[in-house]
Amino acid sequence: xxxxxxxxxxxxxxxxxxxxxxxxxxxxxxxxxxxxxxxxxxxxxxxxxxxxxxxxxxxxxxxxxxxxxxxxxxxxxxxxxxxxxxxxxxxxxxxxxxxxxxxxxxxxxxxxxxxxxxxxxxxxxxxxxxxxxxxxxxxxxxxxxxxxxxxxxxxxxxxxxxxxxxxxxxxxxxxxxxxxxxx
Length: 183
What we know:
The longest helix has 24 residues, at 32-55. With 183 residues, this protein is an alpha+beta fold. It is built from four helices and six strands. It is 38% helix and 20% strand.
């Protein structure tokens, strides 16, 4: 077992874990499959650009400009502070079936990970996942308040609920302009 350095807080974490127990940062592991993904992305990117260009009437510059505007919007998404993430994780861990929790942000995309006890039902997992998002939103300083609904805001969400043996119980997503999770 090797120790890796967390890119979020600089703490030491086991190479057997998927996220830092101190700050919730997802631990990226270098592997052959990651290298293969990079090579595949380099090869596929030009093909995707050409396909998008053809779909937009052959105007490659128009396609690239649209992509650049989307990238600017993503970079301008508010960054969740460590305190907000830590509080949401702490509150979720208070639930008796929650074994662990983590939040990761990349631009406008926020990923939520819940590890729950064996035997947790799909309905209970979906409720916990929705509560995790609501808990985070209720602690974001400028988030619109919406009487229990998930707010339309600057973020898109991915929520995964798993057992300790990595069996997926529930998975959901939400785009920025949606007001509910799609389970």
